[in-house]
Amino acid sequence: MALVLITGGTGTLGRHVAERVSRNGDDVRVLSRHPHPSEPGVQHVVGDLATGRGIAEAVTGVDVIAHCAGGPKGDEDLTRTLVTAARRAGEPHIVSVSVVGADRVPMRGRIDRTLFGYFAMKLATERVVQQSGLPWTVLRASQFFELIETVASTLAKSPVVPTFRGLKFQPVDVETVADHMAGLIRAEPAGLAPDVAGPDAADMAVFLREYLRATGKRRAMLPIPVPGAAAHAIAAGAITAPDRAVGRKTWAEFLRERRH
Ligand SMILES: NC(=O)c1ccc[n+]([C@@H]2O[C@H](COP(=O)([O-])OP(=O)(O)OC[C@H]3O[C@@H](n4cnc5c(N)ncnc54)[C@H](OP(=O)(O)O)[C@@H]3O)[C@@H](O)[C@H]2O)c1
Question: What is the rounded (10 degree) CA torsion for 226, 13, 33, 57?
Answer without folding.
Answer: -120
